Amino acid sequence: DSTVAAAPHTRPQPSAAELIDEDEDHDVAAERANVQRALDERAARAVSGTAMGGGMAKGGGETYTWPVELHKLRKVYPGGKVAVHDLSLTVRENECMGLLGPNGAGKTSTIAMLTGLYAPTSGHATICGFDLREQMDRIYERMGVCPQFDILWPQLTVLETLTFYLQLKGVPADERRDRAITSATSVELGFAANRLVGRLSGGMKRRVSLAISLLAEPAVIFLDEPTTGLDPETRRQMWSLVDIAKRGRSIVLTTHSMEEADALCGRIGIMAYGRLRCLGPSLHLKRRFGDGFRVEATHAKGCEEAATAFLAQVLPSARRHNRDVSSVDTITLQVAHGTVRLSELFARMEARPVDAGIVHWSLSQPSLEEVFLAVSRIAEAEHLGATAGARKGSKPSLAEPPTAVLQSTTRSVSDDSLSSGTSSSGSRSNHGTSRQGADLGAEGVENGAAGVRCCTHGEAAHAPSRSASPIFSA
Fold first, then answer.
1. From CA 26, how far away is CA 398, in angstroms rounded?
2. Helix (H/G/I), strand (E/B), else coil: 37
3. Are the CB atoms for 402 and 370 separated by under 8 Å?
4. How, if at all, do strands 220-224 and 250-254 pair?
5. Per-residue exposure over 233-259, b if at least 16 CB sit within 10 Å of its own CB, e if not
6. E strand spans, 57-210
7. Cβ atoms within 10 Å, residue 221
8. In 78, 126, 340, 425, which residue has its Cα 20 to 30 A from 466's Cα atom?
9. CATH no. of 2-142+218-280
10. How far apart, in whole angstroms, are the C-alpha atoms of residue 138 and residue 447?
11. Which of 305, 368, 291 shows the shortest CA–CA distance to 334?
12. pLDDT above 90: percentage of residues in the chain
């Protein structure tokens, strides 16, 4: 959704007075400031008795700005364990918000509070305008949940299972059967409507759980690792169903799959040690926390020295990844932002001499997995006080993403410059001169970040691979 994707870049930045944590990520601070401003505006309107302004949705006789709104939500378990630290977050309509994080990050505790399983220790949250503490019964009417583990009865058929949950939702008896059939069909289980749940495959059971979460047209849906344990084909089928389901709804998705988050989520938040560490569209996070971009060049057999020498001329500051035994004819380079104009890179690679031996090359952005590892390591360093006693401001901080941390998470990046390759092979081979993606190399593109931005617009509509995905290939 283009509106969702643009939001983190257009929202006003918080003032210094609004910043509680000097090391807090700018987008996280901006989100918290947005929530605070919305609360202040609603409070002011309530005092003055004026009507809500434009852009406010309505539900249950009340008005709200976002379907899901959290303000300084906090959970402390008996014994003093702080599971969630003052979380401020919004989820918009037609948006799938992804919550990522290592085990123990606070994702499950957050979902448990929002679904009424645990009471928050402090803070405020609303779903469709209803207060989490006072109006949970009203929230249940507008909420759907797909838990991590299926809660199904093997003795019931698919139709009986859906009918039972429709009854819990308060759907009139004369409507339940038709709506149950429609629901089963919507998740491609119409053919198995009369089959016992206990005889379904794992993937089919997950689809039943998804169908349950969609019953009675909920406005907000929580999906807790919906594709865990599924094979790749079934997983992609589930992604298609979730992508359709988010239309007109708000979805909160927790997952350990970077590929899943990349494919489904308009915005992604990464949590660690109970705190929201970064927030934004996948491309935005890759651009902020990624260490430039990656160039892969495949050379003809026996032409490695010639290809290395040519690439050293084109990208003198690039660093080379250690050789991957599975791709002996491929040279992989890490190129930092701002070290090369992409228009010049494209021009020189398109005009490369035949004796350079390069038969194919591609350009790719950092993977979401690399961003996740970098953010997690920064959070761990902050949590453990890895630089205790250092000067204030010298510790790892998400306020200014350190590329050094990300570099340590990539696959064995070598510190040796390509300039070490000085010999040139006389081997010659044909090379392609495809102009695919020439728009990326248009004049005026100054660095890798801008190039990635103009070449991957709308990336969430596709399912990228777990590794860095090529955004240009020639």
1. 8
2. helix
3. no
4. parallel
5. ebbbbbbebbbebbeebbbbbbbebbb
6. 57-59, 62-64, 68-76, 82-91, 95-100, 122-127, 130-131, 143-146
7. 22
8. 340
9. 3.40.50.300
10. 50
11. 291
12. 52
Q: Is the pLDDT of residue 447 over 50?
A: no
State both tokens at 31. 């989100």
- Sequence ranges of the domains in the chain: 2-142+218-280, 291-473
- The model's pLDDT over 144-183, given as tens digits with 9 standing for 90+, comes to 999 989 999 999 999 999 999 999 999 999 999 999 999 9
Contact 97, 249 (CB under 8 A): no
**Would you say residue 20 has pLDDT above 80?**
no
Q: Count H helices, E strands: the chain?
A: 15, 18
421 DSSP assignment:
-
Least reliable range by pLDDT among 111-115, 198-202, 320-324, 412-416: 412-416
**452: amino acid identity, one letter:** V
Q: Residue 164 contacts by C-beta under 8 Å, 6 or more apart in sequence?
A: 156
- Give the 3-state secondary structure of residue 332: strand
In this structure, what DSSP letter does residue 190 have? Answer: G
pLDDT at res. 355: 92
Unique residue bearing structure tokens 């660093």? 319
Which of 400, 467, 402, 450 has its CA nearest to residue 262? 467
Distance separating alpha carbons of residues 86 and 98, to the nearest angstrom: 18
As a whole number of angstroms, the distance between CA 469 and CA 464 comes to 6
> What pLDDT is attached to residue 445?
32
Of 321-330, 343-352, 419-428, the poorest mean pLDDT is in 419-428
Return the structure tokens found at 232: 């790749």
